[in-house]
Design a protein that fits this description.
Layout lengths: L1 H7 L29 H14 L4 H12 L2 E4 L7 H12 L4 H6 L11 E4 L4 H7 L7 E4 L10 H14 L3 E5 L2 H5 L3 H15 L3 E5 L8 H13 L4 E3 L11 H18 L4 E3 L7 H14 L12 E3 L2 H14 L12
Parallel strand pairs: 1-2, 1-8, 2-3, 3-4, 4-5, 5-6, 6-7
Length: 332
């Protein structure tokens, strides 16, 4: 068991050791002729659930891997210091110790990939995560609508970095995508990237508000060209958030960008990923489309809150043979 988990579960990866994406000069030739076949994309992702699965100790290992790639998130209007402190404690100890002992992973130092909060809550997260290697991710640029001015967006990014955020999740101006103003989008994202400094930048496309996969692909290319370290599906506030189909479109753009530049850009699906089975589907998709190199917290994250509770519940089922009540795995 332990050997299987060590081989397929947690890998100790130093935070942010990969080469940053500095971006490339704007050139429409890389994306202008993109046209996505919707039916082909949907046929491809429909094969995941029925034909591919992992069972028993391999499933436990994959779920432990998924835990290490969660951006544990609280983005509610009623967030308080207490909420954040409890969430950070869960990030430091995401799976009950007795379960980790039975899985042979008690000394694995398992944590989530990051904690994601609003700007004003960064000081509380910094206090709670002191002494850990868990980065703070802050949503910025007028999250979730992104309707404030570019000057205000830049100022907000700089304030979050100064407060201690190591990762910044920005939201793009969706009207630039809808109106195909690609150079303006490139300039906006590039300025945000410069404002992030040493902090890594995740660019949220809000794909649920983009009408076609073709525009999703073009927006993905522009965001990467402008220097995004990650591209991310959603704020979690749209009516439609992460889906496997839109993920396939985005990660194939990541693959093409890597083939062009040699730079690995990360991917973050967010919103609506609540069940362990969903997490496995995303991990399988990443493995098949991008390879094992992307299966680490530096290149793949889930934006989620309730997902961790269901993963812990599934791990308890593997250990004990019985499903436990949800209250045995509180989030905060």
């Amino acid at each position: 068991m332990t050997k299987v988990l060590e081989k397929n579960g947690i890998q100790n990866v130093s935070t942010h050791s990969l080469e940053r994406n500095e971006g490339i000069p704007y050139n429409e030739k890389y994306f202008d002729e993109i046209s996505i076949n919707r039916s082909a994309i949907e046929r491809r992702v429909n094969t995941l659930g029925g034909r591919r699965s992992v069972k028993k100790e391999y499933q436990a290992a994959w779920l432990l891997k998924a835990v290490s790639m969660i951006d544990l998130t609280t983005l509610a209007g009623d967030d308080t210091r207490g909420n954040v402190l409890r969430l950070c404690e869960k990030a430091r100890n995401p799976v009950r110790h007795d379960l980790l002992e039975k899985l042979g992973m008690a000394n694995a130092n398992l944590t989530t990939g990051a904690v994601c909060v609003y700007h004003n809550l960064i000081p509380y997260a910094k206090e709670a995560l002191e002494g850990s290697n868990i980065p703070i991710a802050a949503v910025s640029t007028g999250f979730p609508a992104g309707k404030n001015s570019l000057e205000e967006k830049i100022a907000e990014i700089k304030k979050s970095v100064a407060a201690g955020a190591k990762e910044i999740d920005i939201v793009i101006s969706r009207d630039l995508v809808l109106e195909s103003k690609w150079k303006e989008l490139y300039d906006e994202v590039k300025l945000c990237r410069q404002a992030c400094g040493d902090a890594h930048m995740k660019t949220i496309l809000a794909t649920g508000e983009i009408p076609t996969y073709t525009k999703v692909a073009k927006a993905s290319w522009v965001a990467m060209m402008a220097g995004s370290d990650f591209i991310k599906t959603s704020t979690g506030k749209e009516s439609v958030n992460a889906t496997l189909a839109v993920s396939l479109v985005m990660i194939r753009c990541i693959r093409d960008y890597y083939q062009l530049t040699g730079i690995k850009v990360g991917y973050k699906p967010a919103g609506g990923i609540q069940k362990a089975k969903q997490a496995l589907d995303y991990l399988i998709l990443i493995k098949e489309e991008l390879g094992d190199e992307w299966l680490n917290p530096e290149l793949f994250r889930f934006g989620a809150s309730s997902l961790l509770g269901d993963i812990e519940r599934q791990l308890e089922h593997y250990v004990t043979g019985s499903y436990s009540a949800g209250f045995r795995h509180p989030m905060a």
